[in-house]
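seq:
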Amino acid sequence: AKRSVFRWARVEVPRMAKAAQRRVLAAVPPTVRFIFQHSYLLSLAGLYVCGLTGATLFNSGYVLFLIVFLASEHLAHKLWVLLVLYAETVILALLVWQVSWTEQYDDSAQPGVIGFAHRDTVFVGLVWHLAILIF
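struct:
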């Protein structure tokens, strides 16, 4: 009796799971399945738009991620966490730049080239970076 239970668990359970998976996939329209299977392309489109909003070093980092991710889907899956960490680091740097003691450095050109700018409303400069995190 033990052998039949183990055989059932080893043979029948995976077969039932595959059948259930086929029924679920058959119930989802092909268009929706395609969107979910290729959702990373929507994320790359968002990364493209956000990366080209300005000519700064921060945005060139986003464009570099875009190029690498377009070149290899395998690398995109492996390095996606690195993109999230990069976006979070950029957001943190932009938030730190908003403190008052950094205003004295606004006269030079380097902060603007990097992507730093003082704004009246802090979140105005963070919109695109937050959009990348959401994608």
